[in-house]
Amino acid sequence: MGKETPIYIQIHNQMRKDIEEGVWKVGERIPSERDLALQFKVSRMTLRQAVQTLVDEGILERKVGSGTYVSSKKVQESMVGIASFTDIMLSQGKKPTSKTISYHVKSASVSEAENLKLTEETLVLRMERIRYADDLPICFEVATIPFNLVEHLSKLEITRSLYKALENEKGLRVGHAEQTVSAMLASERIAEYLEIKRGEAILRLKQISYSTEGLPFEYVRSQYVGERFEFYLEKNK
Predict the structure, then answer these.
(1) N or C end of the chain: which has fewer CB within 10 A?
(2) What's the burial of 156, exposed, middle or buried (CB within 10 Å: 0-12/13-18/19+)?
(3) Which pTM value belongs to this model?
(4) pLDDT digits (tens, 9 = 90+) for 129-170
(5) CATH 3.40.1410.10: does it fit domain 75-232?
(6) Strand order in 216-225's β-sheet?
C-alpha cells in the first residue's frame, strides 16, 4: 500500500471496488470487523474507520444486532421538474407497477378544492394506490384529479400512466409542480401497505402538478418508504 494515502482510505477504496465488482451483493452482509481486520492485516480501529466511511457514504448500512450490509440502491427523484412515477422507475431500470386500493368520483373536499382551485361542489376522481419498483412497495399514494379531465379516460389508462393519457387524449402537457416534503412515522395501515413496521420512518410528499398553461390538474399526497426512496435537489447555476 502507498505511503501518502491513509490506510483506512486505501481499505475503503478496496472495499468499495469489491462491492462495485459484485464481490458482495446488494443486501448481503459483509464479514465481521474482526475478520476484515485480519484480511487487511490492520487493527480493528483502522478497519472500523474504513467501514464507517462507507456507511457515511451510504454504500454500507449497519443493522443493530445483525451486522453491516451492502445498501440497497434507493430510487431517486429530482425535486427539479416533474416526471411520472412510471417514468422515474423506467429511467432507473426498474419495473413500475401499481395496486389500486380505492377509485371513486366524489365532490371535492375543502383541501382538494383549495389546492386544485375548484369549488367544493366540483366532482373529482380520488384514487389510492400502492406504487412498486421491481415488486417492492415504494409508496402509498392518494391522487385527486378534476373529473372533467378524466371522465372520458378508462381506469386502465388513468392508473397505468395518467400523464401520458392526459397528453394523448386531452393535449394537456405537464409543466411544473409545487412539492413539500416532510418526515413522519408510518401508521399501522400504511405500514401494512408498504410492508414495513409500524412507526418506521417515511417521507411524506404533497404535490400539486400544473400544466404548461398553469392549470392545476393533480393533487397528490404520497408516503414513501425512507429506506427505499430519496429526493435530491438540483441547483441551477
Answers:
(1) C
(2) exposed
(3) 0.64
(4) 999 988 899 999 999 999 999 999 999 989 888 888 899 888
(5) yes
(6) 96-107, 123-133, 136-146, 216-225, 201-211, 174-185
Please, are residues 192 and 231 in contact by the beta-carbon 8 Å criterion? no
DSSP strands (E only) in the chain: 60-63, 67-70, 75-78, 96-107, 123-133, 136-146, 174-185, 201-211, 216-225, 229-232
Give residue 25's identity as a one-letter amino acid code. Answer: K
- CA dist., res. 27 & res. 42, Å (int): 26
Residue type, position 205, single letter: L
Question: Pairing state of beta strands 229-232 and 75-78?
Answer: parallel
Task: Write the burial class of residue 152 (CB in 10 Å: 0-12 exposed, 13-18 middle, 19+ buried).
Answer: exposed
Q: Which amino acid is at 177?
A: A
- CA 168 to centroid of chain Cα atoms: 27
